[in-house]
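Methods: holo model generation. Sequences were used as deposited, without trimming of termini or removal of tags, and paired with ligand SMILES retrieved from the corresponding compound records. Each pair was processed once, and we did not select among multiple samples. The sequence and zinc ion SMILES for this entry were:
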Amino acid sequence: MIARVVRAVVVALSVVVASHVAAPARADDRVIIPDACSVTRPYDAASPLTELTSGIETTWGFRLTGRYWTDERYRPIVATVWRTLDAISCTPYLGALHAKVGTLELFATSIGGWAAGDYGLTRADAVSLDFPQLLTSYPTDPGHVSRLFVHELTHAYTRDRSANPPYWSDFTALYARNGRFGSYGSSSSEVFSEVVGYYVARCAANNPYTPAESAYYDFAKTEVFGGKEFGPAPGQPVACDATIPDTRAAYASANAAVEAAVADREAAAQEIALNGAARYGYESLSVSGPGTAI
Ligand SMILES: [Zn+2]
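and the model returned the structure below.
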């Protein structure tokens, strides 16, 4: 945690410095996942995507398929996957996952519709991730990308639930008492994925971990992550809160500019209409928020 906070401060300072030399700040230099583990494999923004993807495969036991992994437009998504895996690498999570499913395929694709990811639906035995949709969410809610990734991995993690292993037995008893978690998921499997996804991605927008959800929090902490935490107890300020608002402010101003442009165009359209110049059309601009459906 401390290391990443320090890094965030360094990044924030370097952004200030960079602004004086007119170098653009990299969109992927943000704190998205508060640390559970010391960073053992720092994400290197200078690494080619081919090296990053092969590094994900060999370091953390996945098989990456789909052309988006090596498409520079999707570097923030690759970086988020890298950092998420690094952050959970000292917990029992990945070992337990691989014991259940072996080398897991991560398929970077465009799913279409409302789903940003799935396990086993788009492609059998693979976690499919809708990279274009995730990239759309990234600017306003980068934590969503991490949460979605862990959510889908966790569907693979619970693949053994029909055998009712101890973790699942404990969880279903908890689910029977506590029910839904957040605004999504009305089955034990979906709620489990959300409980685990938000436990890792503490910086995700609208994270449901308030003190009222401490039973789910304690479950994830003790039965899934071996006591490691990605932030303070529910209800306490999360480290990313100090760094994310800066970027949110930046996007807020961008959104404000878009909204101003929309207002200008609408005003211009009204003026044109009043002048009877109906032949002048204008394109509509839409401002959409981050997707949440998974
Ligand atoms: Zn799901």
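Confidence is low (pLDDT under 50) at residues 5-28, 242-294.
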